């Protein structure tokens, strides 16, 4: 799967409280969550973001609360991919489970700037910065995780298991 | 192959003789837990799976604690969804507010004797790592993981490496487990244990009561850890003999010990005598300082409670320190016993009266202000000293408000002084 879009660049330790503040967790409706995505960190995000855009951030993205509402809010905003040095472990699981594409690539994070036009192939892990012409290769997913993703995420995987 | 405590629990629950760091395994779950924020979305996913029943109605736990008593119509709807599901599926561990078993999830699961040594627990709440204090493996997941685990009673794990935290010495007066865990987070950073276990050991663990160990493991996630875990000792056995005498007498629990030659990616040696009363300044739990170096910071509010520090020992410490004193005129001091049982015991011991006399407001058990939900939300520019676990931007209210994390003694002292302070100043 190929995606392309403009980069929103953020720093290290972007926590799920700023991705979607708890005051908005009284509903899990993606349309409601998207209206408040990133609002405590970047109030302009929801007005600037366009379908396909890509978040690039530093270390430990998605740390803090286990709220799955966070990757749901990012996905509903139109973000096609999040690239980070690494992800907090619950956010990593949640992203795979809700179908938000994520890639770990410290080299790309260090070389990509806010506003760059990016293209990424989620299957090969190749990330190309069309603004600078540089290319990077993200860490591959383990086979076990790929298998879950190929079955349509954890729900598809679990459906196949409970049918057995 | 030598294994850590965590690796042994995972191997046993996966039906394997041994596991190694990085292995991806499927393991059987003893308990699966969700709360009023994470369970309603999980119920939606569960219904999509086409499964008629949960894997075990005694092992799926549903606790309403984040926005309860319902703070608004939407949160009432969330709880209604969970309540209807719990009734339909005859979930054993679903309680209504006010019942003696009820309270904040991570306070009641250990205190009610549900989790015992050797158990494997997942919960759709990041602070599920609390129960490692009992020598069990527990960790947080999201709502989809919860839904699939409710259906199958298994989930996948990546076997973690471990950091060994070797404790020696004894705490100085007023220093607690909260100061210890804040120091560890300050030392290794909010991602210092990412994907790893924090395994505690050494003769210094005797300095930590069970309540103290629960506080330490509770915040393991704040340095990215998958879980925190303590070895089982006499303190643990005494605790479970009280919380679950039936299972204790039947020896219906399992003690795991790390192999002596188990491998650790890092060893932290900590002399407890060196730990000071500590605070974490905004906006990361790793932004730690000695409390005594922050006495120029004026405050508007103090919160004593949460899954981190809302246990009986915490309420007792607050009441003992505050007895005969008054909360500063410019400060609201909100005390939230972590469960009905804690509330009742604090009531019987006269502690709630002492806190009331000092000018505190005493709340029903709830997560409430910790996550900026209700019962103590901050306005723009306000600053709170809180015994909770996170001080991220906007965590307790307005994005321009501030949370300073501390243990109970610093929180109480700050409530009296109207600024960050320590008990020796009272």
How would you briefly describe this protein structure?
Chain A is an alpha/beta fold.
Description:
The complex is a heterodimer of chains A (164) and B (426). With 164 residues, chain A is an alpha/beta fold. In chain A, strand 5 and strand 6 form a beta hairpin. The relative contact order of chain A is 0.17. Chain B is α/β, with parallel strands linked by helices and 426 residues long. Helix content of chain B is 31%, strand content 17%. A 7-stranded mixed β-sheet of chain B has the order 12-11-17-16-13-14-15, with helices on both faces. In chain B, helix 6 packs parallel to helix 7 and helix 11 crosses helix 13. Chain B is globular. The N and C termini of chain B lie far apart (54 Å). At the A-B interface, helix 5, helix 7 and helix 8 of A face helix 2, helix 3 and helix 5 of B.
What is the number of beta strands of chain A?
7
The rounded distance between the terminal residues' Cα atoms of chain B is 54 Å
User: What's the CATH class of chain A, please?
Assistant: Alpha Beta
Most extensive interface, residues per chain?
A: A-B, 43 and 51 residues
CATH fold annotation of the largest domain in chain B: Aconitase, domain 3
CATH class of the largest domain in chain B reads Alpha Beta
Strand content of chain A: 15-25%
Give me the side-by-side strand order of the main sheet of chain B.
12-11-17-16-13-14-15
Q: What is the number of E strands of chain B?
A: 17
Distance between the termini of chain A: 30 Å
CATH evolutionary superfamily of chain A = Aconitase, domain 4
Which sheet architecture does the biggest sheet of chain A show?
7 strands, mixed
